[in-house]
Amino acid sequence: MCSMTSSSNFSTAQISEFLLICFPNYQTWQHWLSLPLCLLFLLAMGANAILLITIRLEASLHEPMYYLLSLLSLLDIVLCLTVIPKVLAIFWFDLRPISFSACFLQMFIMNSFLTMESCTFMVMAYDRYVAICHPLRYPSIITSEFVVRAAVFVIARNVLFSLPVPILSARLRYCAGNIIKNCICTNMSVSKLSCDDITFNQLYQFVAGWTLLGSDLILIVLSYSFILKVVLRIKAEGAVAKALSTCGSHFILILFFSTVLLVLVITNLARERIPPDIPILLNILHHLIPPALNPIVYGVRTKEIKQGIQNLLRRV
C-alpha cells in the first residue's frame, strides 16, 4: 500500500489503492448482515437470469415491451455485480483494498447504470401510454426498431452525462488519506479525501443527477396522467381494470424505485441527525432490492411471463 502524505505536492499518481471501511461503527455485526445481502444477491441474479432466458426462449414474448424488460434486467444484473460481490468480499474476507482505477470504474458504472434504469422506466411508461391512449397505432409506433433506438438513447444519454463524474474525481489531488468510509466508491465519499476544492464536483453531480432523474420522473408522471385520463373515460365493463392491469406492474416498480431513491436522498441530506452507517446501508440496498424485486413483480403480475416461466421449468 502506498504511503499517504498531506504535503501540497501530493499527486494522484502516487495512489495505488483506496481502503473501503464498511460501517465503521458496527464492525462486529458485518458477518450477520452479509447473510441477507447474499440471499438478496442470489435472488436478484437468479430471478433476472430466469426472466432473460424466458423472454429469449418464448416466441410469444418477442415483443417490444418484453425487450424493454430485458434491458431493465441487464441493467439490474450489471449494477448488482458492480457493487455486491465487493461488499461481500469485505464482510467475509476483509478484502478492503480497491485499486484507484477500479474505484473510479465502479463509480462510473453506478452513476451511469442507475440513470439508465430510470430512463428505461421512462421509455416503458411511454410504451404503456401508446398502448392505452393510442392502441390502434401501437404496432406502428412501438416496433423492434423503436426498441433499438430507445436502447441507444438510454445508453448514450446517460454515459455522456455520467462520464464526467469519475473523471472529475480522478483528476483531484488526494492528500487526506486513502480510507473511504463507505462500502462503495461513491463520488462524495472519495472526493472528501482530496485536498482540492470539490465544489464543482458536487455541483455537477447534483445538476446532472437531478436533470436526468428529474426529467425522467416528469415524463413518467405525464405519461400516467394521460393514461389515467383516458382510462376514466372508458365506459365498457371491465375495460378499466384491464387497462390498469397492463401497466400495474410497471407502476409498482417505478413507485418502489422512486421511493427508495427519495429515502436515500433524504438520509444523505440529514446526515448530521442520523447515524452515518444508515445512508451507507441504504446505498447498498438501493443497488440490490430493486434488481431483486423487478423480475418478481413482473413474473407474478404478468400472465404471459408467468406462463413462459412455467414452460421453461417444464423443459428443464
From TrEMBL:
GO terms for biological process: cellular response to lipid. It comes from Sciurus carolinensis (Eastern gray squirrel). The chain crosses the membrane at residues 33-54, 66-92, 98-125, 146-168, 207-231, 243-266. Keywords: G-protein coupled receptor, Membrane, Olfaction, Receptor, Sensory transduction, Transducer, Transmembrane, Transmembrane helix. It is found in: Membrane. The lineage of its organism: Eukaryota, Metazoa, Chordata, Craniata, Vertebrata. GO terms for cellular component: plasma membrane. SUPFAM superfamilies: Family A G protein-coupled receptor-like (SSF81321). GO terms for molecular function: G protein-coupled receptor activity; olfactory receptor activity. It comes from the Eukaryota. This is Olfactory receptor 56A4.
